[in-house]
Each structure stands twice: as C-alpha cells, then as structure tokens.
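User: Please run a holo structure prediction.
Assistant: Happy to. Please share the sequence and the ligand.
User: Here you go; the ligand is adenosine monophosphate.
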Amino acid sequence: MGPPGAGKGTQAKSISLRYRIPHISTGDIFRKNISNNTTLGLAAKSYIDAGDLVPDNITISLVFDRLNNEDCKDGFLLDGFPRTVEQTAALDNYLSVKGVQLDAVVLLSVPNEFILDRMTGRRSCTLCGASYHIRYNPPVVAGKCDICGSDIIQRKDDTEETLRERLEVYELQTRPMIDYYKPRGILLEVNGTKGINEVFENICDSLGAGKVNDNN
Ligand code: ADP
Ligand code: AMP
C-alpha cells in the first residue's frame, strides 16, 4: 500500500519476478476491462476517471475471482487492494475461509511533495501495465514498453486535478488500513523516496529471504 504514485506498481513487478508469485493489480484489471469495453470496464470507468474508488462490491468480487485461480495457490501479491477498511475486512474473511495467512503488508512511504512529479511524469504500458517515468525510469525505446514492446501512454487519471481527489481518497479511505494492520505485526514500512532499485532491495530485506517461493 501507499499513496497514488508511491511506486506500488513499479515495485510489484519486481517483487512478483523475484518471489515468483502473480502480481494482481486491481487498477490494471480495471484498465484492461475499460480498453476491452467489458461490462466491468463500463461500470468502473466513471469512478476511475474522476479519481474516486470503484464501489467495494464490484472490486471485492473481482479480486476474489482472481484469487481463486490456480496460479494463486502458492502465493500472490496484491497491488492496490485492499484500499478501504471494508475491502480489508472482506479479504480477511476470504483468507480465513481458505486457511491462508497474509505474510506482509508493505507500506511505501512517500510524502505528498513527491507525488505530483511522479504522477504527471508517469507513462504506462497499454498491455502489461508496466510503469515508466519520463525522467526517473524512461523506456529504452521511446514510447515502447521494455517488457512487452506495446505502446506506452499517459493514463487519463494522471492529471493534476484528479490527483487532488485521489490523495484525498487515500487519506480518508485507505490510510486507516495502517491502523488495521499495524497491531498485527505484519506492516513493513519502507521509505519510497529512494531510487527504484534501492527501494526494491529494502523491500526484499524487510520481507526476508525465507519467504521466497521455491515451488514454481
Ligand atoms: P503506484 O502504482 O503506487 O501508483 P507507480 O509504480 O506507477 O506508482 O509509480 C509512479 C511513478 O513514479 C511512475 O512514473 C514510476 O516510474 C515512478 N517511480 C516509481 N518509483 C520511483 C522511485 N523510487 N523514484 C522515482 N520515481 C519512481
Ligand atoms: P491504480 O492503478 O492502483 O492507481 O488504480 C487506478 C484506479 O482504479 C483508482 O484510482 C480507483 O479508481 C480504481 N481502483 C483500483 N483499485 C481499487 C480498489 N481496491 N478499490 C476501489 N477502486 C480501485
């Protein structure tokens, strides 16, 4: 977890590769559905464009459907979910029924003064969702994704106006999750203002080598 632009998607891609677990990004799933004009995409679009959260009932069932896939049986990484206390409670319920425990909640701490620059400079792959930045992490070939070669674009919700709403939503609806997870001793706070590689190494250090998934 972390505010918009904290680096969640960037780090999640690397964590997913190193720990060999699927990266499940609710934002990426919504965006894929929007570009494919699905019913889910249609239902989510107006909320996303306005910088608001998609309603809990839609988001929660989407994530649980995804977690029921075979590739999640040895672990998974959630990026952008849960984002409300209701989603957090629903996830707890789902996991307890499945007999699965959350190993860690990684909180990327990034003060607001970094966020505007990160968000307005962000460019995203239309196919795999990889995140780039015009200055801090440009693609090797301009306009093309390093990973899959697809076009990279600026997200419609990465504007200064939408950002204000998204930061407010984070403060009001998502930040309270910190108090939910902290007492359970699984919250790992990592300074997200360092360079991308340094943040990644710090996340891995705090997760510990013991959690690497060798089953895949
Ligand atoms: P989130 O998923 O939390 O919204 P992203 O991973 O998409 O954030 O990162 C937001 C923007 O900031 C992207 O343009 C990304 O390339 C850039 N970025 C991510 N981490 C860092 C970092 N540690 N230093 C500088 N820029 C970063
Ligand atoms: P992200 O890619 O994580 O920045 O998410 C982009 C947008 O998708 C958010 O601003 C929300 O509108 C929507 N979204 C993503 N995840 C969630 C979630 N867990 N709950 C509600 N809306 C979400």
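The longest helix spans residues 160-174.
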